[in-house]
UniProtKB/TrEMBL annotation:
SUPFAM superfamilies in the cross-refs: Acyl-CoA N-acyltransferases (Nat)
Residues covered by the N-acetyltransferase domain: 2-153
Keyword annotations of the record: Acyltransferase, Transferase
InterPro entries: Acyl_CoA_acyltransferase (IPR016181), GNAT_dom (IPR000182)
Protein's UniProt name: GNAT family N-acetyltransferase
Record's keyword annotation contains Acyltransferase: yes
Organism, scientific name: Azospirillum aestuarii
Short name of any one Pfam family annotated for the protein: Acetyltransf_1
Domain of life: Bacteria
């Protein structure tokens, strides 16, 4: 059984390793293999998002926590900072369940939009989110907040031409 529940502070030490494991998916994607060895969100960052943002985990009966999603409320959307599923549990619908739970959380708080940034064209990134109902934002649709997120990613070394911002409105 897979249970999606709010993350607790005591979950935080487990989450960086889940993101590292999830990132192994990129080893199979030519040009982005290095993402598998890139920095992940720190335990402190997880604690902050658990305390002040939205933070959900997928708790699997008999296995423990196998995935997380976190984000923050913004004036126009719930922005998702990260979603990661342990590589042993990919393609079981856990990512979709986390996104649906985030959408319910947003709606419960009177917010009817999710945003995120991700890699263009990678099957488990932009095309995956498109299947979940997101659209890719370009040009003037981007807006200052998401432009700033993409700029910050560029500063941190992510290849900006391969990044995009997406929004789902419901
Ligand atoms: C993105 C991620 C969270 C999705 O989690 P998940 O639980 O596997 O997602 P779901 O089971 O809901 O859907 C998986 C879908 O992604 C796509 N996908 C995943 N891995 C894929 C692969 N290796 N090749 C092709 N498509 C793939 C498929 O569309 C798949 O659906 P299908 O199994 O029905 O074909 C997970 O792949 C992950 O942790 N990736 C690494 C970290 C990452 O990229 N996070 C997102 C940052 S924006």
């Amino acid at each position: 059984m897979i249970r999606i529940r709010p993350a607790r502070a005591c979950d935080a030490p487990l989450l960086p390793e889940i993101e590292r494991s999830a990132g192994e998916a990129f080893r199979q994607w030519t040009g982005l293999e290095w993402i598998a060895d890139d920095n992940v969100q720190s335990e402190e960052r997880h604690r902050a998002l658990i305390a002040h943002g939205i933070a959900l985990v997928a708790d699997l009966e008999g296995c423990g926590i196998a995935a997380f999603l976190n984000g923050e409320a913004t004036p126009d959307a719930l922005h998702i900072w990260q979603v990661a599923v342990h590589r042993d549990q990919h393609r079981r619908g856990i990512g979709r369940m986390l996104m649906e739970a985030a959408q319910h959380h947003a709606a419960d708080h009177g917010v009817y939009s999710l945003t995120l940034t991700t890699f263009r064209d990678v099957p488990w990134n932009e095309p995956y989110y498109r299947r979940l109902g997101f659209i890719t934002l370009d040009g003037e649709n981007l807006g200052p907040r998401l432009s700033a997120v993409l700029d910050a990613e560029e500063q941190s070394g992510l290849p900006t031409a391969q990044r995009c911002a997406m929004r789902k409105t419901f």
